[in-house]
């Protein structure tokens, strides 16, 4: 019997993890990356005898595949991907491929914002009592963890790009934290396409599965009205009482599932801000569904420290607080950041604009922002949008310079906030690199 040929486009974390799992499951595996494969990943492929190439895609070695796993970073518009599909070869994402080889309970979390915090927090709540892995967009690849077979439950942070290439992927529990315009450059600038993509998380679910979502998010609520899903719905809300699901009242989170209610006080929540109460409601609902004890949920919520690059307090210098929110790669994320500022703020913003509309930030900028530092290759839209709103607006292309300017502009009691509202690829490798450079520059002041 000839082995099935699995071709993997992209030699990063998900690609290499899939290659290892594919090899173990008797596929003939080939990894192809148009860019350079990092040295450590190359070594893994070499040590495992897996065929690979980088800085090129050799079509003859790709178009003979039985199955293609493509990295979420590669758009469908790419000629090679179109050709693969035209040849009738199935294209899947890592989560689709890996899920076939595990019987673990899958908790999948998506959303334009809050998904990393919610996934990390959910994992934190579950790991006290369950054998649970954290994967998807975070940490070690899902495929590699499935291969190592360590966990009975997985919390997966999944992006719309990963959901675009699922076929049978079906989480027991799906969470949609919110949906706001993001990555529209990948969805023909059509918000509806992006919404549909997020909702694929529930498309294979049945009534025995659960969909947890933000009932205050009109986009989600309207989509559910017009496109009902099979799943059992468990909404969460800050604004209204919820019969089945979670809501917030008198500084308490109340969660009801099948007539059993648990109540969580939020006064000692480690994470601040309204959006984090929502993240806590989503994570606690998952924990309650998976029968984690109330006491454990409460303690875990109180000792959870948050996620790096997400409203991360770096240092206080001369009574000025420096805050790293590099993970804010869209306007809605920056909205939460500015909303939570309680002092005059010097705001560092900019990068690759994905079709942003900055209007929802205007009231916060008028009220809280004293100066803006634009950090990007092309800052024209920012200068035009905010130029008249603040007294000081400057541009730079170096993080170290941006931080030095901020240091000069900030006075005792102010905040300096890096919350770019944009992707990072014009000046940085990724948002982590951007956040680390910010922290290094602050420490070097």
From TrEMBL:
InterPro entries in alphabetical order: Mur-like_cat_sf, Mur_ligase_C, Mur_ligase_C_dom_sf, Mur_ligase_cen, MurD
**Pfam families (UniProt xref):** Mur_ligase_C, Mur_ligase_M, MurD_N
What enzyme class is recorded for this protein?
ligase
- Broad class of where this protein is predominantly found: cytoplasm
Pathway involvement? Cell wall biogenesis; peptidoglycan biosynthesis
Q: Which reaction does it catalyse?
A: UDP-N-acetyl-alpha-D-muramoyl-L-alanine + D-glutamate + ATP = UDP-N-acetyl-alpha-D-muramoyl-L-alanyl-D-glutamate + ADP + phosphate + H(+)
Q: Where in the cell is it found?
A: Cytoplasm
Question: Annotated Gene Ontology MF terms?
Answer: UDP-N-acetylmuramoylalanine-D-glutamate ligase activity
Q: Any idea of its EC number?
A: 6.3.2.9
Q: Which UniProt keywords apply?
A: ATP-binding, Cell cycle, Cell division, Cell shape, Cell wall biogenesis/degradation, Cytoplasm, Ligase, Nucleotide-binding, Peptidoglycan synthesis
Which SUPFAM superfamilies does this UniProt record tie to the protein?
MurCD N-terminal domain, MurD-like peptide ligases, catalytic domain, MurD-like peptide ligases, peptide-binding domain
Domain Mur ligase C-terminal residue range list:
309-422
Q: Which residues form the Mur ligase central domain?
A: 109-287
- Residues given in the record as ATP binding sites: 111-117
Function text: Cell wall formation. Catalyzes the addition of glutamate to the nucleotide precursor UDP-N-acetylmuramoyl-L-alanine (UMA).
Q: Which family does it belong to?
A: Belongs to the MurCDEF family.
By what name is this protein known?
A: UDP-N-acetylmuramoylalanine--D-glutamate ligase
């Amino acid at each position: 019997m000839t082995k099935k040929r699995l071709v993997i486009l992209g030699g990063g974390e998900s690609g290499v993890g899939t290659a290892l799992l594919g090899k173990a499951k008797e596929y003939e595996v080939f990894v192809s990356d148009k860019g350079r494969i990092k040295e450590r990943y190359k070594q893994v492929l070499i040590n495992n005898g897996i065929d690979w190439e980088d800085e090129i895609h050799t079509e003859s070695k790709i178009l003979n595949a039985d199955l293609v796993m493509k990295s979420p970073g590669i758009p469908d518009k790419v000629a090679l991907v179109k050709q693969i599909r035209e040849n009738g070869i199935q294209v899947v994402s890592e989560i689709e491929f890996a899920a076939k080889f595990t019987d673990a309970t899958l908790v999948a979390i998506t959303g334009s914002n809050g998904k990393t915090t919610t996934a990390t927090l959910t994992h934190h709540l579950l790991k006290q009592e369950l054998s649970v892995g954290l994967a998807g967009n975070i940490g070690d690849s899902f495929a590699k963890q499935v291969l190592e077979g360590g966990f009975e439950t997985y919390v997966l942070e999944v992006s719309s790009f990963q959901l675009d290439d699922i076929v049978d992927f079906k989480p027991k529990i799906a969470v949609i934290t919110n949906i706001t315009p993001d990555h529209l450059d990948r969805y023909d600038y059509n918000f509806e396409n992006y919404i549909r993509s997020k909702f694929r998380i529930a498309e294979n679910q049945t009534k025995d599965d659960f969909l947890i979502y933000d009932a205050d998010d009109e986009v989600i609520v309207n989509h559910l009205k017009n496109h009902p899903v099979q799943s059992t719905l468990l909404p969460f809300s800050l604004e209204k009482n919820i019969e089945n699901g979670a809501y917030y009242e008198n500084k308490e989170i109340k969660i009801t599932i099948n007539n059993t209610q648990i109540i969580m006080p939020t006064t000692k929540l480690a994470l601040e801000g309204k959006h984090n109460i929502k993240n806590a409601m989503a994570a606690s609902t998952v924990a309650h569904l998976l029968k984690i004890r109330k006491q454990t949920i409460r303690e875990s919520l109180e000792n959870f420290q948050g996620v790096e690059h997400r409203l991360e307090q770096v240092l206080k210098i001369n009574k000025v607080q420096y805050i790293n929110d590099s993970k804010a790669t869209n306007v809605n994320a920056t909205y939460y950041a500015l909303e939570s500022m309680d002092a005059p703020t010097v705001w560092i913003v900019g990068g690759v604009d994905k079709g942003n509309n900055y209007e929802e930030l205007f009231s916060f900028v008028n009220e809280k922002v004293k100066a803006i530092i634009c950090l990007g290759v092309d800052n024209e839209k920012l200068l035009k949008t905010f130029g008249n709103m603040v007294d000081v607006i400057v541009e730079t292309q170096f993080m170290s310079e941006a931080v030095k300017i901020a240091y000069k502009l900030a006075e005792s009691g102010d905040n300096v906030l890096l919350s770019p509202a944009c992707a990072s690829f014009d000046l940085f490798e990724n948002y982590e690199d951007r956040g680390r450079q910010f922290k290094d520059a602050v420490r070097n002041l």
